Amino acid sequence: MRVAQMNWMQIEAQAKRDDRCVLPLGCVEQHAYLSLATDAILAEKVANDAAEPLGLPVFPVLAYGMTPSFAAYPGTVSLRMSTYVAVMEDILEAFYRSGFRRIVLVNGHGGNSPIMTLATEWLGRRSDASVRLHNWWAGPRFQAAVQAVDPAASHASWMENFPWTRLEGVVMPDASKPPFNAALYQAANPAKRREILGDGNFHGRYERSDNEMLSLWQVGVEETQAAMTENWP
């Protein structure tokens, strides 16, 4: 259930019934022909779709993340690591004050993954709490399903092209983009990285059928739901 549709009294009662809560983590960055908010859209939707049957509260997505690699693309917003860490620590403290002790971070952006280091440090001060970071797109079940459809899947390719990340009036290229020089890319500054990537798709086709994408989505939702329910300390 979305926290945006709850009041503080309902949150207080919910935390007493079940000490789990969910925070989606996204990013605003270039995704070729897809929405700049693709990572935020996907993280929030998969979190809500997974949490709704469990009756778990999902807080509004933290839409901005760390993405310095794409800083040369207009519309990309990248927080400094120190800023992101400070914001996340404040959020974790707020969840704790509200009575939540098991916190699931449903992450939609690889650049945010280092935040688990902060969470582990925070847990050293809050020994009765537990934090789980679930990189939903990188889950083994989801990745296996992706590979079964098309191994050429990457950032801003068909793998992120769902009905809810497309833009009205934007036509996708009917092509498969070849891989780039990964070693050169890794050593480059943001401007050079934009030059290497061009439109922003890392490699692979730009879209696949809705039937394939909706089947993949269901795998992602189920795997995210498992992260909310299984193997808590």
From TrEMBL:
One Gene Ontology BP term is: riboflavin biosynthetic process
Q: Which cofactor does it need?
A: Zn(2+)
Its keywords, alphabetically, are:
Hydrolase, Metal-binding, Zinc
* GO molecular function terms listed in the Swiss-Prot or TrEMBL record: hydrolase activity, acting on carbon-nitrogen (but not peptide) bonds, in linear amides; metal ion binding
Superkingdom, according to UniProt? Bacteria
Cite the Pfam families for this sequence: Creatininase
Answer whether the UniProt record assigns the keyword Electron transport to this protein: no
Asked if the record carries the keyword Zinc, the reply is yes
Spell out the family assignment given in the record's similarity comment.
Answer: Belongs to the creatininase superfamily.
Task: Tell me what this protein is called.
Answer: Creatininase
Source organism phylogeny: Bacteria, Pseudomonadati, Pseudomonadota, Alphaproteobacteria, Hyphomicrobiales
